[in-house]
From TrEMBL:
It comes from the Bacteria. PANTHER family: ATP/GTP PHOSPHATASE (PTHR43581), ATP_GTP PHOSPHATASE (PTHR43581:SF4). InterPro entries: AAA_GajA/Old/RecF-like, Bact_Antivir_Def_Nuclease, P-loop_NTPase. This is Endonuclease GajA/Old nuclease/RecF-like AAA domain-containing protein. It comes from Aphanothece sacrum FPU1.
Amino acid sequence: MLRDLTIKNYRCFEDFSVNGLAQVNLIVGNNNNGKTTFLEAIYLLTNQQTSKNIEQAFADIFQSRNEFINVIEEETVNSGIFVKKKSLSINYLTDYLFYNFDRNNQISIYSKEENPKVVNIVSNNGSFYFYLIYNKQENTDIYGEFIGIFNNKTGEVKFRPLALELDENPELSNYLESSLIKRDLPIKNDNKSQSVSLSQLVSTRQKSHEEVAKLWDQISMTLKEKRIIEALNIIHPDIERIGFTVSQGINQIRLKLKDQDQLIPLGSLGEGINKILTLAMFTVTSENGVLLIDEIETGLHYEAQIDMWRLLIQTAQELNVQIFATTHSWDCISAFQEALQDIEDKSVGKLFRLDNKYGKIRAVEYKADEISIAVRQGIEVR
């Protein structure tokens, strides 16, 4: 699990660090103080095992913020008859990734505590490079094994051996050498690539039927299916089964209720049931990984939020999931505090408030007992 995080020059974070991260972390703060950005940084950091993972992470981030332009390119071909061909490409607005929208600001996201997990992003000649730093080889000056070259027009990330890329592009060598954060990190020289647990991001954008169905394929006919039903029972105690159907071109999630033969469409039971289903499915499929949830309280009544937090905390402990969630809601904070009171080891959960003081964002930590005092005395922590 991540116990610390440093973010440099990523969006609103110029130089930010936080320590003492717990298994379940609730992130609060005013608008534009970096709550969503905090989740994005972790998402990039924990999805770097393959080019497919990091490419999807970039795409998810740009699309959730609507930071892209669909470009339609037309080509006219003359072969006796004029034929117009159209092709659609996506141009990601990558300048917004950099602090103050300045590509000269090198982005660094890393954790110091373990053999480091690191993402570096540097811009050069109109494109930007992202590279992973795993460990330091003996008597070498450069960390890392692979470099990812990001095409901001297509969103494609291609990995190449770092040494080969430097040999073929000598001008890049000095540029990367000057940008490496090697002096900031204590590196364990074990000559092994760092294994990084993958993460899943639940943004404020509603998940499509296809996305949810893909998760269900990992859950169906396993013990995790029971946990999903327990979650749905928070909203409707009579739900017994859940199924995904495709009938006459209509994709639908349907529920079996106690003492009823007719199957009920999920959507007919309100927004709350859909939200709790999404949270439960993403949690049980994040085993041994990280789950990131933006505005976790949306669509849920206060009493349902208490049970939701109990379920998420218990599932996180059983399946070794680290959770980071954001909220603007005092009710959500109160529900989180109440759920923590049921746990013997209350260190499993913490609240972090992101404050902007004198133009610098910092994290203020609240342990379970401090959250309890704040809730009882009505002390504002949002």
